[in-house]
Amino acid sequence: MDQEQKPQNITSAQDVFLAPKKPTGLIIATVAASVIALASVATTIVTLVKADQKSEEIAELSAKIERLQQNTATESTSNTTNTTTTNTTTANTALSLAEQLKNAYKNKEGKELSSINVAEQDIKNSTVSPYQTVVANIVIDLGGNYTTSPALFYRVSPNAEWQYFTLSQGQLPCSDYNTDDLKKAYAGETCFNETNGTQSTVQP
């Protein structure tokens, strides 16, 4: 009988044994290098993300510091203003109304009043808030001769110092109210118009 022919494409055991082996070490080295490269890229990405987060945190912290500085400056200004107002109010409260008016008269006229008669209930609110006025009866020493006259005082607010305006025995000329504070303090008061000889009112 004829012997069975083996297919020519089947490799013998010897051929398999003698065939060149694949470079396994090279493949492993290549894979390892790739893994290291990917790890490096990942580390770089994480670093960049952290750096970006830190930049945002720094920016947010800077904004908070700036807001705190602004608030501190505002509070400092407010406290200074409140302290000044409180000191003025305390000084005015410590003195009686009569003493405050005496000081106001002396500040303007440069001399002391012999006597003054006034009460807290004499204070009037101006039609222009928060201005106030008061009329006090004063005694003036005119070189040994004493005279009594109503005197007009005003202030720009209840916490402000009183200012002496003038003596008054009746209506004053409208031209005497020649400052903004006087016009606001005495707004609506009757005055004498010297221009046409008629009565008028003080306009703020």
Order of helices and strands: HHHEEEEEHEE
The biggest beta sheet is recorded as: 5 strands, antiparallel
The counted number of beta strands is 7
pLDDT averaged residue by residue: 76
* Count of the separate structural domains: 2
- Rounded to the nearest angstrom, the radius of gyration is 49 Å
Shape: elongated
Tally of contiguous helical segments: 4
Distance between the termini: 143 Å
Q: How helix-rich are the residues, as a percent range?
A: 40-55%
Instruction: Report the uncertain regions.
Output: 1-7, 9-19, 83-91
Characterise this structure.
This protein folds into two domains: 13-94; 97-201, no CATH class. The strands form two sheets. Strands 1, 2, 3, 4 and 5 form a five-stranded antiparallel sheet that branches. Strands 6-7 form a two-stranded antiparallel sheet. The chain has 204 residues and is α+β, with helices and mostly antiparallel strands. The relative contact order is 0.07. The N and C termini lie far apart (143 Å). It has four helices and seven strands, in the order αααβββββαββ. It is elongated, with a radius of gyration of 49 Å.
